[in-house]
Amino acid sequence: MKTLTLGGDPLRLDDLGPLVDGERLRLRVPAPALAQLKASRAMVDEAVRGGEVVYGLTTGFGKLKNEAVAREDLRELQRNLVLSHCVGGGEAMPLEEARLVVLLRIVSLLRGVSGVRPALVRRLVRFFNADLIPEIPQQGSVGASGDLAPLSHMVAAWMGHGFLWLEGRRLKASVALRRAGEEPLALEAKEGLALINGTEVMKALATCAVWRARRLSKAADMIAATSVEALRGSPRPFRERLAELKRNEGQRRTATNVTRLLEGSVIVTSHEDCDRVQDPYSLRCVPQIHGAFKTALQHVDDVLAGELNAVTDNPIVDPVTREVFSAGLFHGQPLSMILDYLGLATCTLANVSERRIEQLVNPDLSRLPAFLTPEPGLHSGLMIAQYAAASLASENKVLAHPASADTIPTSANQEDHVSMGVTAGRKARTILANTRRVLAIEWVCAAQGLELAGELAPGTGVELGRACLRERVRPLVGDRYLKPDLDAAEELLLSGAPVAAVEAELGPLEA
To answer: Rounded distance, CA 25 to CA 44, Å?
Structure first.
């Protein structure tokens, strides 16, 4: 198991990739990183001892900010805060996302302005390393005072309420704590608020989405190159000179990827002088269409890089300025907007992939057997696979409506503008999954078309991808139950195995 050291260099998306893929990490927090929390915590203790009225430390929350709470009731205040905010609903977050939520909350606390005890962070690290991960409902956050409801479920589980995952097994929280040899979590002043005021659910969704989108970006180029070969498309639109004229980095990356994937193709060289004047947009505009996705992904990636290390607490207990102040750093608008952007951009990959599928299965367009079956009529081949792709591409268009454009005031209008960031993240996740399925369908169709088109060898990169697919999905010689084939292709794309096989031979592709 790999060890990730926190509290030093900024956290990077590449550090979190193994977690997205379902692996476990062990966290290490050096003593100096924990020591940095002491100054902030001392300010909290001083305010409590002095009887100061400070929001979040000795008052109620939200609209109840003016209600002072007695010193002897502060522990109960934190307990009540967490339990009263446990109103989440819907399905639980996948375990890999829940692990990310915990890790990212620890990262934010280690910035040293949340006012928590070092002992609390040590305990959270111990929970994480024992794989004692809370079950977190997906619904209930408006993404403004952080992800209050989901994060409250995170904390409540460690307090003995709800459910915990212990090494991948779902148990009642009280049972899991006992088996792990842990006492229920008890919170001191400010600590409940520090744990639930944050954008870590949004960050976790964004982390998974961007990591998988990077992989999908490369796979989409590989699959498009396979379709170009199967449909006898021209390589000219991918020339370096056109990238120089376009002056767009995403376009250049895509064109470079496809050119490298087609290197060594006998198919391409065999029809350099064919009678086709130009290919359909779904083939010759791949650099522009896939490139636009890459440009969007780069922006999303850049914003997320900062958010992964951001303080998202409120109030801030800042030992540098010796101030306690409310600044709304928990507002999720930056994350909400990039998640909407990512979802919208991903729709483009599904839309153009579905059009290439139509090119492949339609004999009037492909010059291949109808619906890619050796015996059209008796067999329907991949006819209905195109229907499925069309359904998913259409669903994406509905999901692409931006959640970040919406807001509903909460807390008696104290929180009068919210981000809806978790909704944006959940939509982006679904759009990515739908698009991965559409690309899996195209890959199956393109590989089938490549094999029906003749004996000429495709490009090295295309062949490596096809060989990877054929380890799980055999060619279609007659109608059969197709769902397992499409499932297998989709699982391969999610795993990254085909792209890894190509990169092992050709070197890294550009996302």
So the answer is: 32
